[in-house]
């Protein structure tokens, strides 16, 4: 089985297999996507380098960072 990193195409990776229900396919892939995002978030949330920044630091130049503890304007 080929993956995108091994030269597969995005169209083949997301194609609905023959005989598979669309709802079932979407449900399985939505769970996979959630698990992948959760893993990435867990790694980033525990990174000590990222915790060394104060609010407003660490953004590229030209990015305006606004902070408010009062909620949305």
Q: Can you describe this structure?
A:
The structure is a single chain. With 73 residues, the chain is an all-alpha fold. 45% of the residues lie in helices and 0% in strands. The chain contains 3 helices and no strands. The chain is elongated.
**What is the overall shape?**
elongated
Structural class: mainly alpha
User: How much helical structure, as a percent, in the residues?
Assistant: 40-55%
Run of helices and strands: HHH
Largest sheet: none
Query: What are the segments in which pLDDT stays under 50 over at least 5 consecutive residues?
Result: none
Mean pLDDT: 78
Q: What is the number of helices?
A: 3
Termini gap: 51 Å
Strand content: under 5%
Please count the beta strands (DSSP E, at least 2 residues each): 0
> From the alpha-carbon coordinates, what is the Rg to the nearest angstrom?
20 Å
């Amino acid at each position: 089985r080929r993956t995108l990193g091994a030269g597969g195409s995005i169209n083949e990776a997301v194609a609905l297999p023959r005989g598979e229900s669309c709802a079932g396919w979407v449900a399985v892939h939505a769970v996979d996507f959630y698990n992948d995002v959760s893993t990435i978030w867990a790694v980033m949330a525990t990174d000590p380098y990222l915790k060394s920044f104060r609010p407003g630091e660490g953004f590229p130049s030209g990015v305006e960072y606004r902070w408010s503890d009062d909620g949305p304007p």
